[in-house]
Design brief:
This protein has 267 residues and is an all-beta fold. The chain is 0% helix and 59% strand. The protein has strands spanning 4-5, 11-17, 20-29, 32-39, 51-57, 62-69, 72-82, 85-91, 97-105, 112-120, 123-133, 136-146, 155-156, 169-174, 177-184, 189-192, 204-206, 211-217, 222-231, 234-244, 251-256. The strands form five sheets. An eight-stranded antiparallel β-barrel has the order 2-3-4-5-6-7-8-9. Strands 17-18-19-20-21 form a five-stranded antiparallel beta sheet, with no helix packed on it.
Length: 267
């Protein structure tokens, strides 16, 4: 069965801001646009140092993006997307302006993901995924996981989970459990995610801090959010937040952990 995507894949742009090379990753849902950008150094292989972007787009292709670094507004992009080109003007909070232009790279390759599912004795298992690009089978991924969601709700997510600018792969198999693979651009294929990611139900991400967030709820009794930082190829729990009890007498618990004490599950 062919899986549907939760959201459109992000678009990766490469170009220049004034005379500096930039990399930009943008996702759009309706009129809402979000993502990040980073400066690219020639020959550098370090992970991008991202600056968060959020804003809106209109029907004519006009886009306004506010950039923030550590929650402080540091600039704004005003431009237009025409075909594969995103261009316009960047302005700093003090009024300085620079021209930018960027081209979408990694053109759409008609990605299709087919799940191999087996049902026996009332139990349903995901036995693997077949990855098709431009209608050609490019990879088969083995799996062996029980599926506790209805097959009609089986889908995949394409968030960038290791913040390299390329969409990764997650398949929810039950409430609170997902299977993950990271995209390796050098190999042009998905590889197994670190063991430290496997028990986390990722609900959203933040580029500028290399953090993933896991929100959970126990009905009206409690709700919470855990924050994990991606560092040195693993995901480290750095913050736990929980609110419990009735709203009038709610108890708030917050714990923080230094990355240096990371106890991530080893591969």
């Amino acid at each position: 069965m062919t899986l549907s995507a939760v959201r459109k894949p992000p678009t990766r742009y490469e170009g220049t801001l004034s005379n500096k090379r930039i990399l930009m990753v943008l996702s759009q849902e309706g009129t809402t646009v979000e993502g990040a950008y980073a400066y690219m150094k020639q020959g550098a292989h370090d992970a991008p140092r991202w600056i968060d972007l959020s804003g809106t787009a209109n029907a004519a292709g006009g886009v306004t993006l506010v950039e923030k670094f550590k929650d402080k507004v540091t600039g704004q992009f005003d431009g237009k997307i025409a075909g594969n080109i995103f261009s316009g003007t960047w302005r700093s909070p003090d009024g300085k302006s620079l021209e930018f232009t960027a081209t979408a790279v990694g053109a759409a390759d008609n990605l299709r993901i087919v799940a191999r599912v087996a049902s026996t004795g009332g139990d349903t298992k995901l036995k693997g995924l077949d990855i098709y690009r431009d209608q050609k089978l490019t990879q088969s991924i083995p799996a062996d996981a029980n599926i506790f969601t209805s097959l009609s709700n089986l889908h995949y997510d394409n968030r960038d989970l290791n913040f390299d600018g390329y969409p990764d792969l997650a398949v929810p198999v039950e409430n609170g459990e997902q299977l993950y693979w990271l995209y390796d651009q050098a190999q042009h294929r998905y590889v197994d995610a670190p063991a430290s990611l496997r028990d986390i139900n990722v609900t959203h991400t933040r580029y500028s801090t290399d953090e993933i967030y896991e929100e959970y709820s126990g009905g009206s009794k409690y709700k919470g959010m855990n924050v994990y930082k991606y560092t040195d190829g693993k995901y480290c729990l750095i913050e736990e937040n929980m609110v419990s009890g009735d709203p009038e007498k709610a108890k708030i618990s917050k714990k923080k952990y230094p990355v240096s004490q990371c106890k991530a599950k080893e591969d």
